[in-house]
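User: Here's a structure from my thesis project, written as structure tokens. My advisor, Dr. K., wants to see whether a designed sequence matches the one we expressed. Can you design one independently, without my sequence as a hint?
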């Protein structure tokens, strides 16, 4: 622990990280009457401008519904009633709303969700501290853990608490605080790269995945005037090799859309198509949630949704522990969440395999290419197969 004099404070839960996991948890704890302090490394402006995911699944929407937050968080956000899978330029539509019996979610850009969660929380006078530097966890296995950090004036704070929620993403301080021999970790490299851009292009009519011999591409809404595009590329590709002309030419080719306009690109990244799971998601009084515990590829759009689902399970368990001295929810936390995590890892991998191997034959060879085509075709010829897909899309 740092040895200069610290400002000493106490709360019930310290939540580390103000992403989807941390801010959902903080709101739910507030509604559950459990005190918490949120510590975020970055500024509010930075957190509110980070554009990533854009689909809240049905289960995620239900979480906000059940806690009475849907009005505030989801107002005005369109639903995601259909999915287009464009095969060799031919559009094929899955009526997600009908197939799932209305179990659809909402299209909500991650940064809008974050802004609304922050507003809801701070309006109620809650405690979110930005620019918290050098967050460190202490005594996590003991009865009285502590979290230290420096504020933007350099003052050292030491917060004593009953529980710590590690919601600080894949590179945060929380998971790193768990002794290596107390965690089993599972990593998987999907051997595919995804080049992704954000551009000022109006969103597609429906979320769109395109499969062709030119490689996989996707086009998703990110608000009324913006789109996120994904293009399969070599793993570790250098974005510098994707000049604008190549990019728009490839998108038109893969999406089978000659009229796609070239537009301003606001962000370019190569996303690691990799998966990671840490087991258990708890060590002593530290509970990991969201990307701090598991990373999933963007295929299937589940990263943000798993973060929200973990927050819901943890908030309910902490409410029971704090108000009723009932620890059963906390004991079951890791197992409950990991079941959902593995189910979604399988979904993401299944969808990745089908949509990529059905496209470029050289990726996995001609035999697997034809298997993937058969799997894809089944979605449009077997209602049971289509229902299985939309059931996974709904989450839960
Ligand atoms: P986040 O969102 O990373 O938030 C963690 C927060 O913790 C802060 N932090 C710290 N704070 C204090 N001290 C420290 N030492 C700290 N270290 C970190 C960070 O600043 C941050 O504010 O994790 P969380 O809450 O678990 O949420 C996870 C989701 O953000 C993530 O799974 C998704 O964004 C993944 N993802 C997508 N998910 C989807 O569901 N659908 C998508 O379409 C989708 N597209 C994407 C994505 C992720 C992408 N990235 C990360 C490359 C597209 C992209 C490009």
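Assistant: Designed independently from the structure alone:
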């Amino acid at each position: 622990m740092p040895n200069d004099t610290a400002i000493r404070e106490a709360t019930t839960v310290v939540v580390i990280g103000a992403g989807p996991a941390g801010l959902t948890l903080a709101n739910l704890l507030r509604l559950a009457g459990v005190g918490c302090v949120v510590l975020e490394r970055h500024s509010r402006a930075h957190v509110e401008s980070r554009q990533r995911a854009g689909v809240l699944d049905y289960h995620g929407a239900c979480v906000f519904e059940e806690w009475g937050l849907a009005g505030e968080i989801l107002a005005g956000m369109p639903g995601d009633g259909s999915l287009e899978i464009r095969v060799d330029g031919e559009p094929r539509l899955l009526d997600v709303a009908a197939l799932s019996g209305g179990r659809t979610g909402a299209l909500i850009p991650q940064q809008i969700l974050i802004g609304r969660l922050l507003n809801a929380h701070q309006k109620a006078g809650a405690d979110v501290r930005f620019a918290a530097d050098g967050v460190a966890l202490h005594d996590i296995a003991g009865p009285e853990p502590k979290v230290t950090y420096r504020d933007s004036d350099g003052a050292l704070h030491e917060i004593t608490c009953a529980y710590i929620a590690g919601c600080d993403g894949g590179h945060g301080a929380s998971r790193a605080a768990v002794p290596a021999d107390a965690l089993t970790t599972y990593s998987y490299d999907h051997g595919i790269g995804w080049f992704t851009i954000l551009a000022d292009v109006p969103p597609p009519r429906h979320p769109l995945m395109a499969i062709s011999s030119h490689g996989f591409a996707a086009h998703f809404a990110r608000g009324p005037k913006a789109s996120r595009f994904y293009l399969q590329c070599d793993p570790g590709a250098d974005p510098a090799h994707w000049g604008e002309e190549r990019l728009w030419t490839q998108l038109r080719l893969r999406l089978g859309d000659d009229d796609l306009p070239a537009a301003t690109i606001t962000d370019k990244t190569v996303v690691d198509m990799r998966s990671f799971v840490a087991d258990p998601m708890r060590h002593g009084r530290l509970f990991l949630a969201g990307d701090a515990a598991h990373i999933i590829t963007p295929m299937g759009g589940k990263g943000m949704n798993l973060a929200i689902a973990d927050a819901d399970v943890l908030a309910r368990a902490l409410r029971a522990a704090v108000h009723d001295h009932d620890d059963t929810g906390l004991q079951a936390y890791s197992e409950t969440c990991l079941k959902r995590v593995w189910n979604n890892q399988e979904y993401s991998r299944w969808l990745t395999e089908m949509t990529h191997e059905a496209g470029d034959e050289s990726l996995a060879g001609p035999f697997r290419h034809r298997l993937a085509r058969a799997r894809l075709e089944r979605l449009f010829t077997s209602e049971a197969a289509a229902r299985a897909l939309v059931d996974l899309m709904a989450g839960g």
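When you compare it with your expressed construct, this may help: The mean pLDDT is 95.
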